[in-house]
Amino acid sequence: MTTTSSPSGSARPQSGGGDFQPDPQRWRAFSVCLVVGFMSLLDVSIVNVALPSIQKSLNASSSELQWVVSGYALTFGLVLVAAGRLGDVRGRRTMFLIGLVVFVVASAACGFATGPLFLVVARLVQGVGGGILNPQNSGFVQELFRGQERGKAFGLLGATIGLSTAVGPLAGGLLIQLFGTDSGWRAVFFVNVPIGIVAFVLALRWLPKSSGRRPSASLDPVGVVLLGVAVVLLLLPLVQERSWTGPTKWLLIPAGLVVLAGFVLWEIRYQRSGREPMVLLDLFKTPSYAFGTAIGLVYFAGFTAIFFILALYLQNGSHYSALQAGLAVTPFALGSAAAAALGGRVVHRFGRPLVAVGLAMVIVGLLVTDLVLSRVSGSSVGWAVALPLLFTGIGSGIVISPNITLTLSQVPVERAGSAGGVLQTGQRLGSAVGIAAVGSIFFNRLANSHGDWQQAIAGALRLCDVLVALALLVALADLRWGARHRTPREEPARTTA
Question: Are 329 and 384 in contact (CB under 8 A)?
């Protein structure tokens, strides 16, 4: 496969590669990846609506409930890059199956939990399983597909990411409605078990056995530890922002940055010694990867926080049930899923400008949603914001999957797992930063206005808009860089991927 640099400064994958023989079962294999990816990412948000039921059933404290949510995100982000690296070296199919077993067993343990500590530990292990699984998905896309087929596959992967994030509250609300308050929260976890067992059987049959195997490559254990410590130090104060009072917790962030700098220096030294580092830092010299990773980090800070604050506003401010709150954000999910699938198909034609258009649509959609919420309240809120959220979702869909495609377009196949892990780690960090910052604005506004939910949601949505606007500035910088560094007369720069 070859990739060409577009006039916009973004790489556009081109079909090619004379000796590449497509796997006849590639779409079947990819369908397993999509199902498992959806299941693991759904668990990031589905638990939110079940927290009141968990608190009542297990007599859990607010701090323990916070760990039920944030513990999963923490361990998920912690293992992403290392798991992607292991998939690249020891085999993606092997790591996929290991991650799936860990995830399913931990899901069953969550459902059988007899106390809050049991549930928190099971959620931490479940996050490890999800973190092992997800970088294998992007690695399989790089390995199984070329040219426009790869764009289509990334489009479906982007649709899965967007849909799983947005539909979580609806799925949780439905399960609690069906099984009741006492058993509904357990069903949220148990539903993963039959799906995971079927996926395991199909993965054994359809996933390529030799994918990513490079037994001679080193695993870089020191790099694994340094990056793991850095991610924990950066994420922990963010995911615990509401539980840990006082400013001391923020000292962990500069400490995390110091460890991250140490990781970079180690990787440079490790590569100079002739060995293969965990993260090939030269990837960031490729504009498509560097700009795309930055866009993902900043955009997910604004994107993920939208559902967090809307769920709080609809359930606590407008007295919606968990199911009604989930239904209210469904237009966003539908628009995002449809547009992501389409965006993956047309990204070859439009390149990075497509991402910029999507970001602009999200900004406009959030502004209109803010305007509507300032004028409408009560039970009619859900209907009033349906169209703005649909428009916002369409914009989000043509950001996520095209950005993934463009970001990984020039990454060598043998590096696909670790590169995808770095991209997703950035997204998880962005999500944690966004929820902490937007949540802080939301609760401060609510307290200062003595319970005025409209003021709180307005301030939070505007911060989400600012974060999305920052992502748009990064996308425009990518376009400007491309315009400066390539003229129409230049031959396209080709990179074997």
Answer: no
**DSSP character for 2?**
E
> Cβ(46)–Cβ(329) under 8 Å?
no
User: Two tokens at 313?
Assistant: 């506003």
Residue from 54, 58, 81 nearest 69 by CA:
54
Could you tell me the pLDDT band of residue 485, with boundaries at 50, 70 and 90?
low
Residue 65 CA neighbour count, 13 Å, CB half: 18
CB atoms within 10 A of CB 56: 12
SS (H, E, C) 157-191: HHHHHHHHHHHHHHHHHHHHHHHHHHHHHHHHHHC
Cβ neighbours of residue 303 under 8 Å, at least 6 residues apart?
165, 362, 396, 431, 434, 464, 468
Q: Please work out, in degrees rounded to the nearest 5, the angle formed at the alpha carbon of residue 462 by the alpha carbons of 456 and 468.
A: 140
Contact between 85 and 224 under an 8 Å Cβ cutoff? The reply is yes
pLDDT in tens, 313-359: 888 888 888 788 878 888 988 898 888 888 878 888 888 899 999 99
